[in-house]
Amino acid sequence: MTSVTEKTYEMMWDCEYCGKKKLLGKTHRHCPNCGAPQNPDKRYFPPENEKVAVEDHEYVGRDVLCPACQVASSRAAQCCGNCGSPLTGGKDARVQQEQVVGPGGAPAQPGQPGAAPAQYGGAPYPAGYPAAGPAAPGAQAAAGAKAPAGSKAKVGILAAIVALLVFCGVGFVCVNYLWTEEGTLSVTGHTWKRAVAVERYDDVRDKSPCSSMPSGARNVQRTKGEPVCTTRKIDQGDGTFKERRECKDAVEQCEYTVLKWAVARSETATGNSVDDQPRWPEVRLGPTGNCVGCEREGSRTETYTVLLVNTKSKKEDRCELSDQTKWASFKKGASYKGQVSVMLGGVRCDSLKAK
User: Fold this and answer.
1) Residue 136: left if φ>0, alpha if ψ -120 to 50, beta else—which one?
2) Is residue 229 pLDDT above 70, yes or no?
3) Are residues 193 and 246 in the same domain?
4) Is residue 157 domain-resident?
5) 99, 126, 151: which is the final residue of a domain?
């Protein structure tokens, strides 16, 4: 079952002229410190502990940008609150990308604090702006222009570190496999192993979602975890965002005892040369049938290993094959060319060719 709750909060914005932080998207249409109009492109989702709820909010649509001065006004307005021009034909204010907050949190979205500020709407300083605040508008814009460089540099360094970690973790395996050189390997011997699994019909402990629990299960223990919840933050484009929280009931899990076939042991046979003809092991079973404690043969596996030595590095290596005929074709004492890993050694078995 899924439950859904919704609540409306104010977006935030930072004044790009005087530097005032965390102004409210709906309440502060102009900066209370210097009077500059709000830039809707710079709205961002607030931190969780600084959200300001909007009670009984009536949503009338995205803000509209004044065709004359590009300042945002409510969709319900007829004329611009900044310059008085008619809003007819004005474009919708841009909205931020939807943000999803799961158990591990959510990545920073464009427009959050720390993102590089830009001049209002890409246009010159808005007409009618009062020359107020601690410094002139031009000085504020110039001072603010230096801050993004440091922020971008830090982001670049972090990105490089993450890329390096990914390369060293996941990429290391690929590099080891792909970075090879031709080497000569000599066959030093052969081994083989054949195995037969023996299954027994008996009581075992198993678990699964309770809805798929097999019939005949007993000694059942039921567990139910916490609901799985996802929170979506949706910018409504009017200085507010809607937070939609969806919670799904956790799937009830059952642990139980049930009669079933399960591997009890494995019978094996091994050999150390191609002259020791591979054979299947003798399998001795207990009672057979469908009784409790009855046994039956299960899956069969076979592995054929060619033992090698690198004639240059003297490192020992091996190739495991599933084809007995191909395994036997490698002659003891013979030399083969193949691709060997430069970093860790090890031969690519599919590349081996007789000299």
Assistant:
1) beta
2) yes
3) yes
4) no
5) 151
> b/e map of 258-281 (b: 16 or more CB within 10 Å)?
beeeeeeeebebebeebeeebeee
For 149-186, the pLDDT digits (tens) are 454 555 566 666 655 555 555 444 455 556 788 999 99
233, with CB counted inside 10 A (0-12, 13-18, 19+), is buried
Sign of CA dihedral 88, 91, 94, 95: positive
Summarised one tens digit per residue, pLDDT across range 242-299 is: 999 999 888 899 999 999 999 999 999 999 999 999 999 999 999 999 899 999 999 9
Question: Dihedrals φ, ψ of 51, to 5°?
Answer: -70, 140
Q: Rounded mean pLDDT of 101-112?
A: 51
Query: Does residue 159 lie in a domain region?
Result: no
Report the candidate in 48, 74, 39 with the shortest Cα–Cα distance to residue 236: 74
Q: Count the neighbouring beta carbons within 10 Å of the beta carbon of residue 231.
A: 16
CB 65 within 8 A of CB 91: yes
CA proximity to 111, closest of 20, 42, 19: 42
Task: Kindly state the DSSP code that residue 177 receives in the 8-state scheme.
Answer: H
* 7 located within any domain: yes
**Cα 345 to Cα 27: distance, rounded to the nearest angstrom:** 66
d(CA 60, CA 237): 10
Q: Which residues span the domain enclosing 203?
A: 184-354
Buried b (16+ CB within 10 A) or exposed e, 307-346: bbbbeeeeeebebebeeeeebbebeeeeebebbbbeeeeb
3-state secondary structure of 351: helix
pTM (whole model) above 0.70 = no
For tokens 């841009």, the residue is 94
